[in-house]
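so my prof wants the structure for this chain in the tokens format not the other one, which i didnt know existed until like an hour ago. anyway here's the sequence
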Amino acid sequence: MDGFSISQVAERTGFPASTLRFYEQSGLVRPARTPAGYRTYDERHIELLAFIGRAKGFGLSLEEITELLELLDEDRCAPVQGRLRDLIDTKIADAQERIAELVAFTGELQRVASTLGGHTPDGPCDDTCGCTTDRPDLVGVPVIAKPIGADGRPLACTLSPDRVGDRMGEWQALLVPAVGRVPIADGVRVHFARDVDIAAIAALVAAEQECCRFFSFALTVDQRGFGLEVRAPDDALPVVHALFGAAA
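here's what i got, hopefully its the right format
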């Protein structure tokens, strides 16, 4: 039999046979049929499945992948690349929003944790034990993050929950003129043209250092232009990439 059987394709692509049958039913990948009724795949099908697997890794939905496959059938890269870039940009924005929400939620949990343990009544909970209500003596007290990084540095933001989203928005606006990113040890270097507003970047760096001391910043100028180097412990690298972007 010419081509590949469904079991061979499953072995080559990592997709189980049940998923391959689902993709066929959904119209994503349509294998041919032998006279005996067996599915048979060719190299083009293998390429399509590799594309689908990559798109799924980006978090794209079945509808979005179907749209990309329709563009792929036109044998023109530009429409595929343009639409994929739009979808990826949306996923980046969604991921950054979720990270901001998680950072804010973590800050709130740490605030609540800081109200516990200071007072344990000998009997039922009261209004200062922190179990059933915030301890009034600790309301408004800044959260001191516990050191959880491998190097002992605190990996939590001390901004109030309502300020986290604003700070991410400030960075996103300031990073619009960035012309590239390259990986560096423990972080990323963001490249800017020489006419970038260095003072504005420096001011935001100073503000960020106040609330997120696990970041390490360096402002550099060399033949590549102006650069902002951002480093953090391994556990905090996802936050670095969310705020400043990952190297391409």
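also thought this was worth mentioning. The radius of gyration is 25 Å.
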